[in-house]
Amino acid sequence: MNVDGKPYRTIWLNPDDASIVQAIDQRALPHRFLIQDLKNWRDGRDAIADMVVRGAPLIGATAAWSLYLAALEARSVDDPDTFINNAAAKLVDARPTGANLAWAVQRMLEALAGTSDAEQRIAITRREAESICTEDVEICQRIANHGLELIRSISERKAGDPVNILTHCNAGWLATVDWGTATAPMYLAHQQGIAVHVWVGETRPRNQGSQLTAWELGHEGVPHTVIVDNAGGHLMQHGQVDLCITGTDRTTRTGDVANKIGTYLKALAANDNDIPFYVAVPSASIDWRIGNGQKEIPIEERDVAEVAIVEGLDGGRLRQVRTMLETSPIRNYGFDVTPARLITGLITDRGVCPASEQGLFELFPERKPTA
Ligand code: MRU
Question: 3.55.40.20, 2.60.120.260, 3.40.50.10470, 3.40.50.1860: which CATH number matches 146-367?
């Protein structure tokens, strides 16, 4: 997608130096556009843990590139297999909720299995990380095509009046390699001349909505309005929302969806107001082993400073301020689980299906356990 009219991806190999991976530093947005160099696997791990990069698909892609960096470093260690396996384990531990991280690491290790030549390890990890990124873009483009039909039918019903879509957090191109998951159908609709308007929930505490989604949509010229997280229900009651589309960090085979904290409340409000609530789900975010999202998906708890301290521009200077007493106890849950019964459908890269085991198995028959 475009930044000041120039196309970017979120992560790439430095074209002038193949020992450096580069990524957009998302902590600096929307006020500054910075690129961070990742020079070894620890840089990649820290970028994931510190949310230089975030969003389940991009976290997976970053882990893949980190293992390429580990393969480069492994040239000069005594026990390269142990070195790479240790890096893989530490990467998987960097963030607990999203499914794509462990998926990408597993895929990289499988690609490496049986390789003992250092140069081969480097070539394999580079090729596999590149494939993960290319496939991620293709998957998002397929989600765009499937989700577009939902938007188009509402647009036709409204005789071309703007389709008001509510989203939460950032499931945009910054959360993936390009295009995004939830935003992909919105971008495609906009490109095809279908009038859309996006309600962007700010998404406390890290404000991925107001700081990342709004920034993205602005650079693509998609009409949007930022709202506080608590405004979604009010807008739905007053006929201002035609459709909700969110992303997911991990979806169970039964269609329960873990996504950024606050998604569940949006789904409850949509259900109460008969508003379709869809989740954009790339296949690597589906955890086929899990049937009960509320019980089985680990929910990340993050630093309480994210809740207590806000950062913003003060006369052109970035400042941080504490908004509450030092003595106030705080909990900072990163994600919640929306049960399948509140979800109208899943927009996957293979099509749209009901949020259910049967719905997902129909699109992914190879995942169906054989008796
Ligand atoms: O904590 P984050 O920013 O990594 O959270 C991920 C998200 O942005 C969302 O939950 C998103 O909807 C899923 S990733 C496409």
Answer: 3.40.50.10470
For ligand 1, atom 7: residue with the closest CA: 55
Active site residue 303: no
- What's the confidence (pLDDT) of residue 344? 98
- Contacts of residue 298, Cβ cutoff 8 Å, sequence gap at least 6: 96, 97
Task: Check if 247 has its Cβ closer than 6 Å to any atom of ligand 1.
Answer: yes
Tell me the three state secondary structure of residue 230: helix
Both structure tokens of 181? 């998951």
Judge contact between 277 and 266, C-beta under 8 A: yes
Structure tokens, 178: 């390009």
344 lines ligand 1 (CB under 6 A): no
Q: pTM for the full model?
A: 0.97
The one catalytic residue among 249, 256, 287, 349:
249
Q: What is the tens place of the pLDDT at every residue in 134-184?
A: 999 999 999 999 999 999 999 999 999 999 999 999 999 999 999 999 999
CATH architecture of 2-135: Up-down Bundle (1.20)
